[in-house]
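U., I forgot to send this yesterday:
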Amino acid sequence: LFVLFSFPLCAVQWSSPPASTGLFNMVVEVPRWTNAKMEIATKVPLNPIKQDMKNGKMRYVANIFPYKGYIWNYGALPQTWEDPCHKDPHTGCAGDNDPIDVCDIGSRVCSCGDVIQVKVLGALALIDEGEMDYKIIAINLEDPEAQMFNDIDDVRKYKPGYLEATVNWFKLYKVPDGKPENQFGFNGEFKDRNFAIGVIKCTHRFWQSLISKKTDGGGICCKNVSIHDSPFCCSHEEAESIVQLAPKYVKSSSIPDDVNKWHFFTHER
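Result:
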């Protein structure tokens, strides 16, 4: 799954301006209600989705009462990059060196690796351990209620409490690991659809500089088979050999008991 490069950013051709459609492709990394911290492996050739590891152990996100795992389908927009050398003009924080993240609020529980078309509704300016880490709020275009949602205020109207739960989740989800609460730009207020699309377009420009080697991506592996004018483009044969050499899929052993633990926090935090 050549996540960063093979899938286009827009769900429609660029001839239809994203600012007028707001439709983008989303790669699902983590299905709703699950805990395994699956991520696009940006430093691995061809950027597969893998479960993150720390100290030799698989990583799982903690359950913050009353939630179970991730409370949306969580993933990223392909062909975007939050440049760590760029400071966000609104917060002064540099990018987190990853594709821009998306929270799909639709009712369907997706599968890891699904590529879905989403309608962008707004954005939350998360500052994660000092890094800019925008969270795009969107809804699956195939959701039965998708036509009801066109901007961030529609989420407040039709899914009351969901945005507040989203802020609380991102604020606390690292606390059980001994880390401080996360902070937010704009005092934790959600920005609207137009602002979100502006952020997406900006991160797409950063990605374009990355894939054309105009920007140093550090350890990011830009090898791909679809961006033919990129100096990182490789043959399908080379890509196939990389895939063949990758470790075979092995079904994981049982999930550790502590993954199902609930963590409780007072509202005064």
